[in-house]
Amino acid sequence: MLSAFSRLSRGLSGGGARRPSVAEARRQRARRKNTVSGRNTVAGCGSVERLESRALLAVDVLSPIGAQSLNSGDAATKIDLADHFDETTITGTVVQFTNNSIVSNDTFYIELFDKAGPERTRTTPLTAANFLSYVDAGSYDGSMIHRSVLDFVVQGGGYYAPTLPADQVGSNPTRISEGPTVANEPGNSNIRGTIAMAKLGGLPDSATSQWFFNMGDNSANLDAQNGGFTAFGRVLGDGMDAVGAMGEAQTYDASNYYGDAALNELPLWNAPADNENIVRPDDFLTFTSIDRAAEVTYTVQSSAPNVVTAAMEGTNLVLTPSQFSGVSTVTVTATSVADATASAQLTFNVNVTGGTTAPTPESVMSFTSTGLWLLNKSDGSEFTQSTFAIWSTAIEWDAVLEGDFNGDGLMDLAGRTNIGQWWSSINEGDGTAAAPDFMIYWKPSLNITKYVSGDFDGDGRTDVAGISSTGVWWAGMARTDTIGFSNSRMGAWSPNLQFTTIETGDFDGDGKTDIAGLATTGQWVGLVSKAGGGWETKNLGFWSPTLNFTSDIVSGDFNGDGKTDIAGRTAAGQWWAAIANADSLGFTNTLIGGWSTAVSWNSVNVGDFNGDGKTDIIARTNIGQWWGLMSDGTDGLRSNSHIGYWNPNVTWTAIIAGDADGDGRDDLIGRVATSSELARGRLWVAKINDGALMTTTKWGFQSIAPTVESRDLFFANF
Description:
Blueprint: H1 4-10, H2 22-31, E1 59-61, E2 68-71, E3 77-80, E4 85-87, E5 94-99, E6 107-112, H3 125-136, E7 143-149, E8 153-160, E9 174-175, E10 194-197, E11 211-214, H4 219-222, E12 231-235, H5 239-247, E13 250-252, H6 255-258, E14 266-268, E15 286-293, E16 296-302, E17 308-313, E18 316-321, E19 324-336, E20 339-353, E21 356-357, E22 363-368, E23 372-378, E24 383-390, E25 397-403, E26 412-417, E27 421-425, E28 437-441, E29 448-454, E30 463-468, E31 472-478, E32 485-492, E33 499-505, E34 514-519, E35 523-529, E36 535-542, E37 549-556, E38 565-570, E39 574-580, E40 587-594, E41 601-607, E42 616-621, E43 625-629, E44 640-645, E45 651-658, E46 667-673, E47 682-687, E48 695-701, E49 710-716
Parallel strand pairs: 2-20, 19-21
Antiparallel strand pairs: 1-4, 3-18, 5-6, 5-15, 6-12, 7-8, 7-15, 8-9, 8-11, 10-11, 10-12, 13-14, 16-19, 17-18, 19-20, 22-23, 22-49, 23-24, 25-26, 26-27, 27-28, 29-30, 30-31, 31-32, 33-34, 34-35, 35-36, 37-38, 38-39, 39-40, 41-42, 42-43, 43-44, 45-46, 46-47, 47-48
């Protein structure tokens, strides 16, 4: 083994004492005479014609897949897709090569000539079996191209690429352990795009592990030399682009550098001179894996993944019914591994019975500073953006609210301008809204300081409400005879009280929305519906001002009794909940957990993230960790659960909770804010898994310019 010093002092040469430029090195390689020399080499010829990539591939449907009927809770059903699709131009075993290319695709495929088929004169079963024995043993994983001759061959299968820089001990390429020799099987021509076995000069049956790609038409030279070289496979599709990139890599005479004569035409991605003449692991043309592969790849999609999930297991389509009933359309696309344009598709319905009604996946709506309402519609697995509505930017919008203002089960939008007009955009159900409707007028002199929405009269339609600076609550009650609001005075709170937060919910369990406000005196003041109609102001409870509650105050059903509760975090990190009383109007205070004060907390969200029917509380720390006060089946103190991590260096413009995939459990949606054109506006959904950390995946992209502000973000069934 050469010492690090001798390597550094001796260096690599490009065929002479002077290291040539890339262009000169290529000219030298083109002039170099290729002759048989050493173990497992290939004799050569001069410059040859380059042939076009092979792309004459086709995928056919053998038989349709019939409608499937499944029962909720049943075991998964498997369908072997190999019985339904066929790549008609591929008959032999397919092998996938994955390399570390820095200039081309890193994956390409070859077909072995172990079966009769196109572009072969004969089959080569012995050679194919020999090659697959190395593939199946993983012997080629981590191997490298150790010889390259321009327009002639690219040779591998002989060495493993070093894993250490060349100035460290143990950094020489090591030889692959060779198995028995294989009998020669000549007869297929060594034309460009074929793979053939390398062997010893003068010994036709001496091939073991090494192989080479023919980079040109070498038939005149190699088909008869040394008993003929066995071409045992062909590169598929445009795979020669990747092989050609390896053939274009600059070569070096590394025989002295590594003390191995067989490395005198070693290709490298990077010039060692760029790294003080030290060859590093990434410089080698390395195959990270060489594995068997199917002749087609499959992508599957379920239109209702909350009803039935569709996944692949080898060539088997796996259909798993959920706890929900419903119908899903499953789409299967089979694509040739060698040509992305060669594909075929099948669709069929899956009917799941015996479960509960499936929730509708919730979508994301945002209002931009340019007046656009952008809808990111969820299909259960991704968002698709469209323009939902356009509002005027000539006026200012003091309030923007969502709700079902006409009672059709779809979310609509409503806003109040700075001149007192209420307008709405009613959902048409097709991803768009009707032209804005004038709803009602509130005098600007009312000086509304806080707006809320909810079904205050229990008629199934969303109403709007606001509190004035004098403490009077005004409501715009959704009309049943037309699109619009009717004004109503709901009640009044003392103008002497200042409120730090206002929450809405059904605090008494009567099916109507109530309003609760926390005064600086610690009183929880409520505006609740009366049995005979109308509303009244009630004292709901008390939080001690000495606890110094932060702005992290949220509402939800924390004990699963169907009534809305309120929780808040103190400056000392304690989470206290005002639990709605079971048999009387009001709250009972309960300590439900605590968070560390050694870190700062942001993006506090509530939702039923584990699907048990009780509201959980989650938040992200300043170091990116997500923690949750997750319900655990009890109504008392909850333990903290570490549920995930988001990069703290990424700026998020909004993080909200909702059920993006319609599985009955809430997810998190976050939108990236960055100056990067590539990353800006990406919408990420984090799924909080049972007993594991959240899984975060990119679901969509909100395409807005960096100068456009997205001010409101809603998660609902739009």
